[in-house]
Amino acid sequence: MFGFYEIPLNIEKNGISISVEGEGGSLVYRRESPEGSVKKNILAKGGKLLINPVEPLIKPEELTPYFLVEFSKSVMIEPKAESKIYIKFPVEIGVFIAGERHYDILDCVTLMKQKLTLYGDASNGLICKYWLSDVYNSIPQAEPFHEGVIELNIINTTSRWIELTKAVFNAYGMKIYYGTDRVSMRANLRILGENFAEIDFIDAPIKSGMEKSLEHYTVRRMSVLTTKFVMEMGL
Amino acid sequence: MILNTVVYSTVTVMDLISVLFTLLFAIIIAKLITTNLRRTLKEKLSKEHLGILEKIINYSIIIFAFLSVLPVLGINTSGFLVAGGIIGIIIGFASQSIVGNMISGIFLMIERPVKIGNQVTIGDTSGFVEDINIMSTIIRTFDGLYVRIPNEKVFTNDITNLVVNVARRFEYVVGITYAGDADKAIGIIKKIIEEEPLALKNPEPAVFVDNLGDNAVNIIVRIWAPSTHWYGVKRKLLWIIKHTLEENGLEIAFPQSTVWFANEMKMRVND
Questions:
Q1: Which candidate from A115, A127, A130 shows the least CB-CB separation from B226?
Q2: Helices B47-69/B13-41 angle, 10° precision
Q3: A76 vs B: CB within 8 A
């Protein structure tokens, strides 16, 4: 389903149907999925649709740019060590409309459950999108319309054993890649203290031959101060 | 010497020069203070409010310096003091509330317990903060009314900022009948909360039997939600909880009375 499509189009896969058809002189976009249906009029003569995975933060609504993945089992990392783990994240599918080399998001759909959580306390904390993931030592199988895989390179710069129970990501730095069999991101998690770590994304696919996604926050051309996230309210 | 030359009365050229230097010095000091103040309060106050504060301080220093040099120029300020004192008392009484509001406004701008756009409760007024001026704070109530509250009242009243923290908790009391299964009801309510995206995973929601009431087993439901969306979540979930409990055969209790008669009731049936 991911990729470019010429208008008009009609595609159906994994319980999601997307169509753009001419109706009474204008174009009508329709999307039906388990979460509901969307209908929009498009005032254009033609163009293309780009469907690709986007940052998993648009659904249920854009409330926060932070994404917290809780590990189902905590990870202990030895002092001054570097290790790779794999975790999963929910895939959100962005539908972009393209015309005259400009893109804008038309719709976003997900087949996954959504949940929010609080990182830190109510007065100083952050609202984050929440996901519970198992921790894997090798790239796990994941259905690309449902879940993606994050390769997390953990670097413990401290001289103590550190227990890691979660990772918090900043959506502004997400670099998403997709292929026919998986959606992926790569990130470095640098532990700088017992309760202090820094996460930033790597702009590279998990395997060769994957396509780079057009991210929602990139399209919005927002000026951001940092793409990193500093976890300072607990690991 | 020219410096000792009398210009008028007993005022010499030297006196005039010292007056000029004092005023110049006062202007420089005022400029230094306002510049430092601007740097310090740049983040805390809006440009407009900072401008007003700068002007007040600037002119106060210059007026004070000007009054201090008047005796050097041979002008007796004791008359000013008496007249100024009387005028001051009159103005003081007349503008007591104005000055109070202004000072409260300055403190509100420095302390910033509320910001424009916040949802707040000040005294008996609840709504969105539309503007914070030097004299008053403007509130748009939840039912769309414009309320102007003098800053002195804002400063001395209890202020509840509903959105200053990112998350807040709300609570329901769900009463089910004594015949109902409270464990089953708790399980159903927890599942509803789990399925609601805007009900936070952490802090964990709490659902428990709080008390055995006169007419119902009272289950307390405590849910955390983002401060900006808590009211919508609160409105949405209660009705879903009520419906789902009823669909699962759990009745919401209401006050009932069982009446026992001491003597057997007799019934007459007319054909």
A1: A127
A2: 160
A3: no
B228–A118 C-beta distance less than 8 A: no
Q: Are residues B18 and B56 in the same domain?
A: yes
Q: Can you give the pTM of this predicted structure?
A: 0.72
The total of structural domains in chain B comes to 3
Q: Give residue-wise pLDDT tens across range B92-121.
A: 777 777 778 888 888 887 878 888 888 899
B270 domain residue, yes or no: no
**CATH assignment at residue B133:** 2.30.30.60
Residue B89 and residue B29 share a domain: yes
pLDDT, tens only, B242-255: 999 999 988 888 88
Amino acid identity of residue B165, one-letter, is N
User: Taking residues A197-216, what's their average pLDDT?
Assistant: 87
Give B152: exposed, middle or buried? Use CB within 10 Å, 0-12, 13-18, 19+.
Answer: buried
As a whole number, mean pLDDT of residues B51-79 equals 82
Q: Per the CB < 8 Å rule, is B226 touching A117?
A: no
The verdict on residue B231 lying in a domain is yes
Helix (DSSP H) and strand (DSSP E) numbers for chain A: 1, 19
B95 and B55 in a single domain? The answer is yes
Percentage of chain A surpassing pLDDT 70?
96
- ipTM of the assembly? 0.84
CA B141 to chain A, closest CA, distance in angstroms equals 24
Which run of H or of E encompasses B31?
helix B13-41
Residue span of the structural domain in which B215 resides: 167-247
Mutating which of B163, B202, B204, B224 best tests the A interface, going by the most A Cβ atoms within 10 A?
B202
- B155 and B172 housed in the same domain: no
> Does the beta carbon of A63 lie under 8 angstroms from any beta carbon of chain B?
yes
- How far A128 CA sits from the closest chain B CA (Å)? 9
Taking the C-alpha atoms of residue B241 and residue B190, their distance in angstroms, rounded to an integer, is: 10
Inter-chain CB pairs, A–B, below 8 Å: 46
Cα separation, B268 vs B260, in Å, equals: 19
